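About this split. The held-out portion is used to measure sequence recovery: a designer receives only the C-alpha cells and must propose an amino acid at every position. Recovery is the fraction of positions where the proposal matches the reference. Here is one held-out target exactly as it appears in the evaluation file.
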C-alpha cells in the first residue's frame, strides 16, 4: 500500500483546522497593515536559490530538492520564498517606481532535512516582505506586524533575539578573524565545518553538532567588525523596539542560515516548542534584489513555520474548535424530500446542515451523529411535518426540544448553536 513520501504528511482534522484558523488571522492582520498576497510557483530555476540563499548554505548545498525537468531545465522546489518573491517582483517590474512595496505569502516549502518533531521535508511558511525602505523604522514597522500577528494568535512566552550582521564590506575582516580562530582549534570541528571554514566561515556558527558548538566558545563576533552606519541602524532599531515595548535580547552570535542578510537579523524562539524552538526568522536583505538581477532596492522580511505554529496552538489550546454541522435525519419517504427542501432553505439562511440520505433506522443515524461529534441532530418524521415542527436533539447536552419549522433558523440562532 502506498504511503506518504518520507518527510511529508497529510494534513487534516484538528491540525488542518489550526492551519486554516492561523491562515485566516494572518490574512486579516496583513490586510490591516497594507500587505498584499503574492503566490509564486513551487518550482523555480535553481539559480534563483543559488544566487540568493547561497551555494555554501546547507539549504542549497545539502537540502534542496532539485532536478532536471523533461525540457533539460535545472529546477528546484523552493526551500524558502523570499528569493521567489524577489524574482517575481523584478520580473513584473514592481520596482519601477521607488514606492515601498509590501507583500506576503503562505505556502509549502521543501528541504531534504533529517526528520524530527516539527521538522519536515515539506513544511509551510507564512512570510512578509517590505521592499524599498532601508531605515530602521521599516525594520521596526515590519516587526510590529509580526508581533501583532503573534499576539492575535495568542502566543506569549516568546523571545526575540536580534543582531546586526553588517554589510558585505565588513565581512572580510570578520571572516579573517574567524579563520584565525579556527586555525587554532581545527581538529575539534566536524568534517562539514572544515568545508564551511573554506567556503564561508559564518556557516560554522550555525553547525548543530554539540562538539562544534562547544569548540566555538569565545569565537570572534560580527558586532566588533560593524561599520558606523550598521551600528547606528542597530542602535536605532533597539531604541524603537524599546519604545514599542517589544521585548528583545541582543545576541551577537546570531547569524542566519541564508547568505543574503545585511544588518538586522533576528529569530523568535518559543519555550513551548522544546528542541525545535525557533518559530521564525528573518532580517534585512539590502543586496538581494540587485543580486537577482533587479535594481538596487532594499528589503526586510521574515518567515514563520506554519507547522510549528500549529503544534504550538495544539499544545496551548488543545484541538481547534471544530464545530460539526447539524445532521438532519428524515424518517420516511415523504419526509426525505421535505428534509431536502428544508436543508436547501436553511443553508441559504446560513445554517450548516448535513443530510442523512442512507435510509437506515433512526437509531443508526443517531449513533453516527454521536460518533462523528455532531452538535445537533434534527429529526423530521411524518407527524412532525403534519404539525409543522421538528425535533431538535442537542447531542452534547443530551437534551431534546421541539421547534416550529417556520422559526427554526431564528430559534437556533438564539440557542447555544452558533
Ligand atoms: P528559515 O527559512 O530557515 O529561516 O526558517 C524559518 C522558519 O521556518 C523556522 O523558524 C521554522 O519555523 C520553519 N522551518 C524551517 N525549516 C523547517 C522544516 N524543515 N520543517 C518545519 N518547519 C521549518
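Reference sequence for scoring:
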Amino acid at each position: 500500500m502506498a504511503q506518504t513520501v518520507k518527510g511529508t504528511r497529510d494534513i487534516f482534522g484538528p491540525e488542518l483546522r489550526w492551519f486554516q484558523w492561523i491562515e485566516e488571522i494572518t490574512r486579516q492582520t496583513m490586510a490591516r497593515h497594507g500587505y498584499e498576497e503574492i503566490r509564486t510557483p513551487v518550482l523555480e530555476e535553481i539559480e534563483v536559490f543559488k544566487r540568493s540563499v547561497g551555494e555554501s548554505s546547507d539549504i542549497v548545498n545539502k537540502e534542496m530538492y532539485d532536478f532536471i525537468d523533461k525540457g533539460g531545465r535545472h529546477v528546484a522546489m523552493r526551500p524558502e520564498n523570499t528569493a521567489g518573491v524577489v524574482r517575481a517582483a523584478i520580473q513584473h517590474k514592481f520596482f519601477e517606481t521607488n514606492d515601498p512595496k509590501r507583500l506576503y505569502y503562505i505556502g509549502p516549502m521543501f528541504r531534504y532535512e533529517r526528520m524530527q518533531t516539527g521538522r519536515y521535508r515539506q513544511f509551510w511558511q507564512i512570510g512578509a516582505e517590505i521592499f524599498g525602505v532601508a531605515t530602521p523604522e521599516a525594520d521596526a514597522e515590519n516587526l510590529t506586524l509580526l508581533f501583532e500577528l503573534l499576539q492575535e494568535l495568542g502566543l506569549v512566552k516568546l523571545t526575540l533575539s536580534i543582531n546586526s550582521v553588517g554589510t558585505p564590506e565588513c565581512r572580510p575582516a570578520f571572516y579573517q578573524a574567524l579563520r584565525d580562530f579556527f586555525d587554532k582549534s581545527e581538529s575539534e570541528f566536524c568534517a562539514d565545518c572544515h568545508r564551511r571554514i573554506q567556503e564561508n566561515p559564518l556557516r560554522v556558527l550555525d553547525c548543530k553538532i554539540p562538539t562544534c558548538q562547544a569548540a566555538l566558545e569565545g569565537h570572534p563576533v560580527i558586532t566588533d567588525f560593524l561599520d558606523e552606519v550598521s551600528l547606528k541602524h542597530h542602535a536605532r532599531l533597539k531604541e524603537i523596539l524599546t519604545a514599542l515595548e517589544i521585548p528583545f535580547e541582543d545576541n551577537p552570535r546570531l547569524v542566519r542560515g541564508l547568505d543574503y542578510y545585511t544588518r538586522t537579523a533576528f529569530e523568535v524562539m518559543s519555550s513551548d516548542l522544546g528542541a525545535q524552538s525557533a518559530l521564525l526568522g528573518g532580517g534585512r536583505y539590502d543586496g538581494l534584489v540587485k543580486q537577482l538581477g533587479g535594481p538596487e532596492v532594499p528589503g526586510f522580511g521574515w518567515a514563520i513555520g506554519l507547522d510549528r505554529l500549529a503544534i504550538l496552538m495544539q499544545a496551548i489550546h488543545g484541538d481547534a474548535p471544530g464545530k460539526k454541522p447539524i445532521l438532519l435525519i428524515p424518517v420516511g419517504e415523504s419526509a426525505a424530500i421535505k428534509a431536502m427542501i428544508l436543508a436547501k432553505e436553511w443553508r441559504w439562511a446560513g445554517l450548516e446542515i448535513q443530510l442523512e440520505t442512507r435510509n437506515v433506522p433512526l437509531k443508526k443515524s443517531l449513533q453516527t451523529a454521536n460518533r462523528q461529534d455532531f452538535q445537533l441532530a434534527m429529526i423530521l418524521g411524518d407527524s412532525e411535518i403534519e404539525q409543522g415542527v421538528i425535533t431538535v436533539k442537542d447531542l452534547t447536552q443530551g437534551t431534546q426540544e421541539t421547534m416550529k419549522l417556520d422559526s427554526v433558523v431564528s430559534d437556533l440562532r438564539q440557542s447555544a448553536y452558533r
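Annotator remark: The longest strand covers residues 101-110.
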